[in-house]
Amino acid sequence: MRYRYLALLASSSLLISSTALAQEANVAQEAAPTSVADIMVTARKRTERLQDVPISVNVTSGEDLASQDIRNLEALSGAVPNLHIQATPGNNAIYIRGIGSSPGNLAFEQSVGLFVDGAYAGRGRQFAAPFLDVASVEVLRGAQGALFGKNTAAGAINITSNGPRSVREFATTVTGTVEGDNGFEVSQILSGPITDKFLARAALKYSDNEGWLKNITTGDGNPAREDMIGRIVLDYLVSDSLTFRLKLEGAKQDLTGQPMTSVAAGGSKGFTRQVSPGVPDFDNTESFNGVLTVNKDFANGITLTSITAYSAFEYDKNIDSDFTAGDLLRSTFQEEFSQISQELRLTSSADGPFTWIVGAYAHSNEIDMYQASRITMGPLNGASRRWFNQENTSFSLYGQGTYAFNDQWSVTAGLRQTWEEKTADQTRATSGVVPPTWVNTPLSGQRDESQLDPSLQLQYTHSRDVMFYASYAKGSKAGGFVGAQSTGGQNAFEFEGETSQSLELGTKLTLLDGQATLNIAAYTSKFEDLQVSGFNAATNAFITTNAASAKSQGVEVEGNWRVNSSVSISGSLAYNDATYDSYPTAPCIWKNGVPPAANCVEDIGGTTLPRAPKWSGAFNVNIDHPLQNGLRVLADATVRGRSGTYLEENYSPSSYQDSFGKVDLRLGLAAADDSWTLALIGRNLTNEWTASHSYGTPFIAGSQTYVVDPGRVVSIQLGLRY
To answer: Does the keyword Signal apply (predicted)?
Structure first.
């Protein structure tokens, strides 16, 4: 109860202080309005102003991530409209504008490509470690096939880490969580020159948190998490025209318990869960990533960029997968993954009427996966064990050119040709008495495919403050195989690739003499052979198929207003209508509260896609005001929300997530020179209960399992810079 009063008091204080500061700024000359700072992005593989890029891009700075205690992509998704992160027992999945690759197939790559410091990550666990020393996160909406290429049919997320700087930097941040996810986090950054040509930056983070669900069986909090992550970035400045950057990063995550709870028919939702006593319940991951980036500038303004990347992880996970107090079903997941990639890119000078980028990309990875299920339920008492191996190679050539007819009109055309090959083998073994759908037949397959992904953008720049654009882009994602599944035969082992075609009209405006920006985008995207994986609770298996076609269309609006030198306001709102156009082989769905019959198939064309709310948005007020004693008062309030949506492919009423709104607040003091900062941070202060994923509890009719988002979390943060 005391935190409700704290939230009310803090919100009232923020409203009063923001009003007072705005009035003070209107009177005092020293608080005259200033311009919105230019936001720089690399959405087109060169550094540009956000307002000049003909793409719908949402950018979150590293400073905002740190100050709002946003530790991972799941937390970020709540503040970015049309972005949804689905956390599941196996892998996480990313959705943009309602489209993504549901994670039921553990061998899935994402329809939304994730790129970290230029390296592609198609597997959810490659970069599952919390945010550490991030410079920016760019969410690129819509197909990005021409430049980003690998599996970007629905969009891309581009994360850039901070690099070394010529000025020495030593920073420590300590965050202690006192409600909702009790624990602490410590991060340390050390950066600066070693010689005039050699610079280094080291970043370390350790966190230990108890979790936000109360496990009523053990009395502990779940998911209890211990994270350790370290990164070193080395810059070697050979000359003004040749530079090397090496990034090495290792992470270890140990998780006890899951953020999942099951609710029996007619039961109430809450921040509690129960498990079978004595059943191991953990998820441990170790990962390593290395990226070597070389830039060579030539006298004619052309830059050659080489990006060599290696990524690997292994994880071991055991869950009590009936999610009840009875020891009915256990699941084990183990995987080893490795990937190596090489990109070579030539970039022209930004001067002149014609600018261009050409490049080649090669990629190879291997998955070794083991999964086991143990069932002790009624007459059933047995196990299924599966071994899955997949090897994947990909090669592509791409190019993009922009021609400026004059100071106002320009056209950009891009093209990428991709060739991909996958081979997979799976062996299965059953023992004891198991469900008849659990089989032990071996499976194997090979796929060879190619895709041509073009893009075209027409841009009209009235002035530096007014820009309009129209764009077309095609995206693709290769087909593949279902990994480590207990059910299905050879005909269900393989699925086809998916393609998308997107049209977008947009404008980017700078208003009020530079005090404000307003960006608007209207879009429509058509998907063919959309890959879908839905859970069948009766067989405890995910069924992976290709939906015939789907469409996502809507409007996105984002704006920033620098009210005065102390107060900034930003907001975003998205309307999205994502539906299946045709899906004739879909498993039957719930209708009028009646569950579907077993083994039923129907066309669910016209149905709204799950995890695709019609409305999503966020509104933020930020205050950074100097006091007469040399200190600064800091305040940051965010209201974010979404309309209702289903979280399961069968549209069970129990999986419906009602519309919600959440309030985040940060209040703090800081030294004028940023040498120290002390802040109180509250996320989801109204303690809204929401879930990111839901499915029918295996073998228990009427019960529903949810992956629960954090409730109210209150933290105290101290930052020191030397």
So the answer is: yes
Give the predicted TM-score (pTM) of the model.
0.91
| Length of the chain in terms of residues written | 722
Query: CA separation (Å) from 110 to 113, 154, 530?
Result: 6, 9, 12
Q: Which domain holds residue 296?
A: 2-556+565-578+586-721
- Rounded to an integer, the average pLDDT of 123-137 is 81
**Token pair for residue 63?**
């400073």
The answer to whether the CB of 137 falls within 8 A of the CB of 60 is yes
What is the count of structural domains for the chain? 1
Task: Grade residue 535 by pLDDT with cuts at 50, 70 and 90.
Answer: low
CA–CA dist 73, 130 (Å, integer): 8
Let me know the angle formed at the C-alpha of 105 by 324 and 149, rounded to the nearest 5 degrees: 140
Helix (H) or strand (E) holding 4: helix 2-27
Task: Quote the distance between the C-alpha of residue 183 and its chain's center.
Answer: 24
Query: How much is the CA Rg of the chain, to the nearest whole Å?
Result: 25
What is the C-alpha separation between 260 and 694, in angstroms, rounded?
9
Are 717 and 678 within 8 A, CB to CB? yes
Note the pLDDT tens digit of each residue in 4-31. Answer: 333 333 343 343 334 334 444 343 334 4
CB 670 within 8 A of CB 678: yes
Give me the phi and psi of 168, to 5 degrees please: -65, 140
Q: Is the pLDDT of residue 425 over 90?
A: yes
Which helix (H) or strand (E) segment holds residue 399: the answer is strand 380-404
